[in-house]
Amino acid sequence: MDKIDESKSCILIKEEEMDETKSPRMRNADITIKEEITDEIEPSYMSNSDISVKEEIADEIEPFCPVIDIKEEGLPEICYDGPIHEEQEEEFIVSDEVGPTSSERDNETAPKKMRRNEEKYRRNVIRTSKVRGVEHINWAGRLILSRTTGAACNCKLQCFTKFSDDEKSEFVASLSQFKSKDEQDIFLQQLIEKHAIKHRRPRSEQPRETAASFKYFLLYRGERKRVCKIAFISFYGITEGRVRRLTDLLLKGKLPQDKRGKNPKKNTISAEVCSKIHEHISSFPTTTTYYGTKDISYLDARLDIKKMHSLFEEKYPDLGVKYEFYLAYFHANFSLRFGRPQVDRCLHKM
After folding, report:
1. DSSP letter string over 100-158?
2. Where are the alpha helices (DSSP H) in the chain?
3. pTM for the structure as a whole
4. How far apart are CA 310 and CA 326, in angstroms?
5. CA-to-CA separations, 1 to 33, 35, 37, 181, 349, in angstroms, rounded
6. Of 21, 80, 304, 338, which has fewest CB within 10 angstroms of its CB?
């Protein structure tokens, strides 16, 4: 019995020493182990109980780690590329709206002094003012008044008596809502009908031949109301020349298309002339060197661009190509040099 008491005291001393160095969680585990040891120890199997106690302690003791309070709202979602936060998830959502183009993005990121305000360009201001029918100053410096209803007609249809003043202003507003002149012209052309001439009554010896007659309508609350030509011009605030252009296109079966500002320049060189210049320059023999970082082609040392241009004028005297254009085309499309290489030369034509 004395031996058993001594062994118990040894165990208690060891466990007390361990309790001073362990964490609170570890101490609770040791206390439960003490109670089990005291109950299970028998005098004759002291050595075996020591082994079982050590094994149980080794299994139940966990490494100490600090307690961290983690909020569920702040937990990141883990994927293959790393954690994704809520702010990043919003960026990955694809919207249905069409994003800005590369030129628009460059304009937004550019400094304030370098940003382009194309809407304030004079040509764009005049163009949009014409379409919207607002007051503006044209290229000649004259003040152009806003689009309004014109003078009344005196026809037998009595067109102006059918509508009130507020209803008359609606026709001008309906035309100004279109964003381009082509849309306005197509809208106006659809309100004009072409009819064949039934009776011809010549009132002079050389009468003017009319191809067809036309009827004009107004679009009023979804219905077509017939009016005369003068009323059609006045209600929409347009000119007679614009209506004449629309009727001519209607006779030809064509849709109106705005071609202003799209005519080629008078001094533009055609593609045929440029191809002849290219063929003429390519007809001269060259010598190529194959040493260095890249191949270099040489023209004859007795040539220069002025002589080549004079030869071109002798061959094509009617084209009238100036030396400046010939020189610019040579530098823009060819990388040739004048001279003769000393070594490793190969004579051939381009």
Report:
1. PPHHHHHHHHS-GGG---GGGSHHHHHHHHHHHT--EE-TTSPEEPPP---PPP--TT-
2. 2-21, 24-40, 46-60, 86-92, 102-109, 122-132, 165-176, 181-189, 229-236, 240-252, 271-282, 305-315, 323-333
3. 0.48
4. 10
5. 22, 19, 16, 117, 120
6. 80
User: Apex CA 62: angle with CA 61 and CA 67, to 5°?
Assistant: 135
Q: Which residues pair with 299 in a beta bridge?
A: 338
Separation in Å, CA 139 to CA 92, 244, 265: 49, 24, 19
Contacts (Cβ under 8 Å, ≥6 apart) of 19: 26, 27, 30
The two tokens of residue 127 are 């163009």
Q: pLDDT tens digits, residue range 247-286?
A: 999 999 999 998 887 777 777 888 899 999 999 999 999 8
List, for residues 107-122, the tens digit of each pLDDT value. Answer: 666 666 667 788 888 8
